[in-house]
Write a structure and sequence with these properties.
about 15% strand, alpha/beta, Aldehyde Dehydrogenase, Chain A, domain 2, 8 strands, two-stranded antiparallel ribbon
Length: about 190
């Protein structure tokens, strides 16, 4: 996930737990025992992560943990948590594709959905709620090709995988993924 919006009532506890879990992650080469997070795709992503963090901090964000490259060999970057991130910070308007978690509080669900939908991207959204009305509002309101509510199981071969807006057109997987390979023809005739 690129951004985390957490209700005020749970915000501090969530941030504390997220930071603790982030600090426990073992970062390293994927074939090493116990590794939970591997390298970034390439060296350019290291520069991008450093840029996202620097920009956010320059704009007033609080760097809670992480924020720098690990070692001098490979493309490893610390799991990073930012709070108090301004909405115009680069990490809030671009897709970071790296281990940076901006975590922001919200007080109304409508505001959280509005902020979640503010970007031109819409691949996936994950949301958690305890009331049916909240779940219904999230289901209808989130602008993403895939929405997972109260769990993380968003992709499987039999379900469509695809986004909205600038995150793609159409879907792969499921029967919906077959639509790109067929030509539909409707014929209506009267005798």
């Amino acid at each position: 996930p690129s951004r985390f919006y957490i209700h005020d009532a749970h915000y501090e506890r969530f941030v504390d737990g997220f930071v603790a879990a982030s600090k426990e992650l073992k970062v390293g080469a994927g074939f090493d025992d116990g590794v939970q997070m591997g390298p970034l795709a390439n060296a350019r992503r290291l520069d991008a992560m450093e840029g996202f963090v620097a920009d956010a901090v320059d704009r007033g964000a609080k760097l809670v943990t992480g924020g720098r490259r690990l070692g001098n060999k490979g493309n490893f970057f610390e799991p990073t948590v930012l709070t108090e991130v301004p909405e115009d910070a680069q990490v809030m308007v671009d897709e970071p594709f790296g281990p940076i978690a901006p975590i922001l509080p919200f007080s109304s669900l409508e505001t959280a959905i509005e902020k979640a939908n503010a970007l031109p991207y819409g691949l996936a959204a994950f949301a958690f709620g305890s009331s049916q009305s909240t779940v219904d509002q999230l289901s209808r309101g989130l602008e993403a090709g895939m929405v997972s509510i109260n769990h993380f199981g968003i992709a499987s071969p039999e379900t469509p995988f695809g986004g909205m807006k600038e995150s793609g057109y159409g879907s792969e997987g499921g029967v919906e993924g077959m639509e790109a390979f067929v030509t539909t023809k409707f014929v209506s005739a009267a005798a």
